[in-house]
Design brief:
Elements lengths: L1 H15 L2 H10 L4 E2 H5 L6 H13 L3 E6 L2 E6 L2 H11 L2 H18 L12
Antiparallel strand pairs: 1-3, 2-3
Length: 120
């Protein structure tokens, strides 16, 4: 069970590790799109786009449905929850550092002074 979960998480992070695939997921957040629509912003063939889509499908991040000769893709956000949960464990590391940075900035930045009235 744990091994299968780790394998799925590896597959999700692999899919998210490519900028083209992340962009495709962002596009699908707005709704269903065809393979052609997903490939359009990139200078790539439909075959290359299809390879990216297969990687996203393997990770369970999208679902492809064939309607006639058209392949329609839709976002499946479930696996993103597992990735978010995994990353959430480490969140205290960066939030703690950001809080410390804010504290240091406040200590080293002089407080703004109110302007003096002219003539006095």
């Amino acid at each position: 069970m744990v091994e299968q979960h780790a394998l799925q998480l590896d597959t999700v992070f692999h899919a998210l590790g490519d900028a083209t695939r992340r962009h495709m997921l962002r596009q699908l957040a707005d709704g269903e799109q065809t393979v052609s629509q997903l490939a359009e912003p990139f200078e790539m063939s439909l075959a290359a786009a299809s390879k990216h889509i297969k990687s996203l499908e393997k990770a369970g991040l999208i679902r492809r449905e064939v309607r006639g000769r058209t392949h329609i893709c839709r976002l499946e956000p479930g696996p993103l929850a597992s990735a978010s949960e995994w990353l959430g464990f480490y969140e205290h590391f960066w939030t703690g550092r950001l809080a410390e940075l804010e504290r240091l900035m406040r200590e080293t930045t002089p407080a703004p002074q109110s302007p003096r009235p002219k003539g006095k």
